[in-house]
Design a protein that fits this description.
Chains: A mainly alpha (319), B alpha/beta (340), C mainly alpha (283)
Number of strands of chain A: 2
Distance between the termini of chain A: 39 Å
Order of helices and strands of chain A: HHHEEHHHHHHHHHH
Oligomer: heterotrimer
Order of helices and strands of chain C: HHHHHHHHHH
Helix content of chain A: over 70%
Radius of gyration of chain A: 25 Å
Distance between the termini of chain C: 60 Å
Largest sheet of chain A: 2 strands, antiparallel
Radius of gyration of chain C: 24 Å
């Protein structure tokens, strides 16, 4: 390869390569910038939520009113909606996801397992707005015309399945979030299950267990920390989802008992109202909601990382 | 590897720099109401064809957001169907807000009922009842009374309203507050209210979208959104007792009184206007222009306003907005010089 | 009455079949998604879509040329800001880092990775939009860069560390200093993995909408400057999907197909690069 003429850029690069100290300093600066920017992020959230925190204090978390005109703000409907839709999502995706993970780790031949895992992991790459687009035109009509009326007919005596079948609402949001969390639960649970030593399975089978019994009573408990970790990770993702949720949840800032009712989540209201937040208190309330969401997801993510590390032992390579 | 990275980086950087200097048009950024968005976008398109050096990027994010972005200075001008209150204007210290009414429009009750294609008649009682939730089924006797020839299904009414801060909401709730003491005490009038029930949609388009997709639903949108989407919309009983459907004539009739007595700052409400032919849920819609625009932007905005108030009005009829009364236009043309 | 063994075997068969059903359901979801997008979007892809600007609401026709280019611009800005930080920061963590500071860096990178995208949008708004008094492509690019950095950082560190020490020692033995060793020996050895991380970072942010809602806002036309609002595909898809216009729905499907296609291609390309790299490294 012929040497190109020495440009200014090349000279600079050469100087860089010649100096260990320079290299150390430059890379240190970039690494430090990651640290600094994250600290700054937390700081900005804290500062901009100050007017709201000062006015409402901790009661912000348990107040139901959201009244921008009279500047009375409370986070409860959004915390409720966020947690409810995420739990719904997990109730659907955990059984399906762990079931699929078991199939892929214990039963499927390796090539099928890898192929299916690959496909499922591609689901994680689908942008949220596309899930929302699909949900509006396929899931919501399905909910409104078939699923919700069916639930009302069969389980309508329960307060959670009462009220009009809008299609939009907590349930639709829960279902789309479930689809969005499949990849995390399947992928990580499968890895946790695969990390269980063969001896465990073989011991169980040697004692006369059926394959299901060996899997369910020995392998899964052994991998449970990783599986729980995957659930936390999926939960953290579900809590922060914005677009798919705001497109199907009905955008109603109140608390409803029924799953068929419209609601709101923290991420959805920030997305909808941020540009029209007049005044420091209104803006502060929205930023405070963001701070609350941030704190919840930090705690979940940290717990998830710890649990997953404990089971798959992947962390040892990077420490 | 570093060499290649640097080369790519430099190429990318130069591409960005080149890209950013290739189109020399003056871009004016604006944001606000969805109520007039259809005609505004048409205007900006047509005006750009006449003056290719002026490009007005209008983001229809709601009157509330239009007011907020104007206040925080992130846009060159705003747009709203609710005139700014004294308190809102008081928050702005850097400039005065000049209200320019641009067109007239009507907010209509738009519905999607299975098996029904008729034009329904609504009264203050039925509208406030539906939106308060006291009338919850389409086969309610009160609806039947005003629509004796219509066979309503036995179906729950799904209400659609705005989820964002909306001038259209203000016009709707302002009307309901004037005609229904119950509404006034329970909900009131504003860009953002505590809706007793219903689904929230973003923008006039969002509400239209919900109603279009959801059987047995009702919402409120600016007339053009119902017309463009071939959706059914009803009549409303005005203060003279006539059931009037929103159109060019009825909305113009609502503005007749205000045209004669327009205040100097142009902030006026024409809901529940008197007159046999007046559509009761009509409103002006304003562009909110800061008084401190300068330089090329000032000239561009002033020229645009002059065009929109005269030539631009000819696009109104085709998009079902009503034109401004002539005395109002002359008064506004005098205000244009206040932008300095 | 069934014997206990028979019951257990029956349960075994039932449960194992169920797990297969679970897999079928979850995998088929991807096909359903792709199927819908292809079915609805493919018919709407035409030359206009890629070359024309959007029309006024309610008018038929037009395209999303400005959104396609705008997305490209915002992602490019994100790459220019985010990739050097991730790459060089990863080099620091793998090659230079001491005892304590790298722990802080890694922890905060993980923290940043877990921040919900809407909150990233809030931060970018406070840091760029407010001082600038304008929505801009810079603000959108900055927000996306923040989301790319942790991915690039962690993957760069991971793949640099997986380069065997023998290579490092060999290079030192030949007289090269540390900087030269990194640039000429280690990074090239790990380049497939690092590239994978960068591609995945781009793929992650390409479809993000929430951080752009109040940073780059949106634009009806071409943006003339980077300090102005700019059109992007995800924001236009959102706007069109919630509207009542059939023509906009059609275009939203097409845009969704284009966006998803790009994201999936990037993901598959990243994995392919990685698998080739792994094979090369082992041999």
């Amino acid at each position: 390869m012929a040497a190109p003429p020495e440009s200014a850029a090349r000279k600079f690069v050469k100087r860089l390569q010649d100096g260990d100290k320079a290299a150390h300093l430059i890379t240190l600066i970039f690494a430090a910038s990651v640290f600094l920017v994250t600290v700054f992020l937390v700081y900005e959230l804290w500062i901009h939520s100050a007017p709201s925190r000062a006015k409402f204090g901790l009661s912000f978390l348990i107040t139901k009113t959201w009244d921008p005109i009279n500047e009375q703000f409370g986070a409860l409907p959004f915390i409720y909606g966020t947690i409810l839709t995420s739990i719904l999502a997990l109730l659907i995706s955990v059984p399906l996801g762990v079931g699929a993970a078991i199939f892929l780790s214990e039963l499927a031949p390796p090539r099928l397992s890898n192929a299916c895992t690959f496909l499922v992991e591609l689901l994680a790459a689908v942008p949220s707005v596309i899930y929302g687009l699909l949900a509006i035109f396929t899931l919501v009509p399905l909910m409104r015309q078939y699923i919700e009326p069916f639930l009302k007919k069969t389980l309508g005596f329960l307060p959670i399945f009462q009220g009009p079948a809008y299609g939009f609402g907590y349930l639709a949001a829960g279902v789309i979030l479930a689809i969005m969390t499949f990849p995390f639960i399947i992928s990580i649970s499968r890895e946790s299950l695969l990390a269980v030593p063969r001896e465990q399975r073989e011991a169980a089978l040697a004692l006369g267990a059926t394959q299901w019994e060996s899997t369910w009573q020995v392998v899964v408990p052994f991998a449970r920390l990783g599986i729980i970790g995957s659930v936390f990770l999926g939960l953290a993702r579900a809590l922060g989802e914005t677009m798919a949720v705001t497109m199907v949840i009905g955008n109603d800032p109140s608390i409803h008992a029924s799953l068929l009712a419209p609601g709101y989540t923290i991420a959805a209201i920030i997305a909808n109202e941020f540009t029209e937040a007049t005044g420091d208190t209104y803006l502060g309330a929205l930023v405070e909601l963001g701070l609350v969401l941030f704190l919840i997801t930090i705690i979940l993510n940290a717990s998830a990382q710890l649990l997953i590390l404990a089971t798959t032992k992947k962390g040892s390579k990077t420490e | 590897m570093t060499k290649q990275k640097l080369t790519i980086g430099l190429l990318a950087a130069s591409a960005i720099v080149a890209f950013s200097s290739v189109l020399p048009a003056e871009t004016i950024n604006a944001a606000g109401a969805t109520f007039p968005a259809v005609i505004y976008q048409k205007w900006f398109e047509e005006y750009h064809k006449l003056h290719s050096d002026v490009q007005i990027n209008y983001q229809a994010i709601g009157s509330g957001a239009g007011i907020q972005q104007l206040t925080s200075g992130t846009v060159d001008f705003g747009a709203s169907d609710m005139p700014m209150t004294d308190a809102q204007m008081g928050k702005i210290t850097k400039f005065k807000v000049l209200h320019f009414p641009m067109v007239l429009g009507g907010v209509v009750p738009v519905y999607n009922i299975e098996g029904i294609n008729a034009v329904l008649n609504f009264t203050p009682e039925t509208l406030s009842g539906i939106f308060l939730g006291t009338i919850s089924n389409w086969n309610d006797a009160r609806l039947k009374k005003d629509n004796p020839n219509v066979k309503f299904p036995n179906a729950e009414i799904t209400v659609a309203h705005r989820s964002d801060g909306s001038g259209t909401t203000f016009v709707w709730t302002d009307y309901l507050s004037k005609v229904s003491p119950d509404w006034k005490s329970k909900v009131g009038a504003s860009t953002s209210v505590a809706w007793p029930k219903g689904l929230g949609g973003k923008g006039n388009e969002g509400v239209a979208g919900i109603v279009k997709q959801t059987p047995n639903s009702i919402g409120y949108v600016e007339l053009i959104y119902a017309v463009q989407n071939k959706m059914d919309y009803g009549t409303v009983k005005n203060s003279a007792g006539a059931f009037v459907r929103a159109d060019f004539e009825s909305v113009s009739a609502a503005a007749a009184g205000a045209a004669k007595n327009m205040p100097d700052d142009f902030r006026v409400s024409i809901t529940n206007a008197p007159g046999k032919n007046a559509y009761p849920i009509s409103s002006f819609t304003w562009m909110l222009i800061p008084s401190n625009l300068s330089g090329a932007k000032k000239n561009a905005v002033q020229q645009f306003l002059k065009w929109a108030l005269t030539d631009g009005q000819k696009y109104c009829a085709g998009l079902d907005y009503a034109t401004l009364p002539t005395p109002v236009v002359s008064k506004e043309e005098k205000q244009i010089s206040q932008i300095q | 009455m069934m014997g206990r063994t028979q019951r257990r075997n029956a349960l075994n068969n039932v449960m194992l079949t169920l797990t297969g059903v679970c897999t079928l359901i979850t995998v088929s979801v991807l096909f359903v998604i792709l199927g819908f997008l292809v079915w609805n979007g493919f018919r709407s892809l035409n030359w206009d879509f890629f070359t024309k600007l959007p029309l006024s609401p309610g008018e038929t026709g037009g395209g999303l040329a400005n959104a396609i280019v705008g997305s490209g611009v915002v992602i490019l800005i994100a790459v220019i800001i985010g990739i050097p930080v991730g790459f060089l920061g990863g080099i620091y963590l793998a090659e230079f880092g001491g005892k304590t500071f790298p722990i802080f860096v890694r922890y905060t990178a993980d923290l940043l990775n877990g921040v919900p995208s809407i909150v990233i949008g809030i931060f970018a708004w406070t840091v760029i939009v407010v001082p600038m008094h304008s929505f801009s492509a810079w603000a959108g690019g900055f927000a996306l860069a923040l989301m790319m950095i942790p991915i690039g950082l962690r993957s760069t560190e991971h793949f640099l560390r997986s380069v065997p020490n023998s290579l490092r020692e060999g290079s030192f033995a030949l007289g090269a200093n540390k900087a030269k060793t990194i640039m000429k020996v280690i990074v090239p050895a790990a380049r497939q993995g690092i590239l994978t991380g960068l591609i995945l970072g781009v793929a992650r942010v390409a479809g993000e909408t929430a951080p752009l809602l109040f940073t780059s806002l949106n634009n009806q036309y071409w943006s003339n400057k980077l300090t102005e609002p700019i059109a992007t595909l995800p924001v236009w898809i959102y706007k069109m999907a919630i509207s009542p216009y059939e023509d906009w729905h059609r275009q939203a499907w097409a845009a969704g197909l284009v966006l998803l296609g790009l994201v999936l291609i990037a993901n598959i390309a990243a994995r392919w690069v990685l698998s080739r790299g792994a094979a090369v490294q082992r041999s």
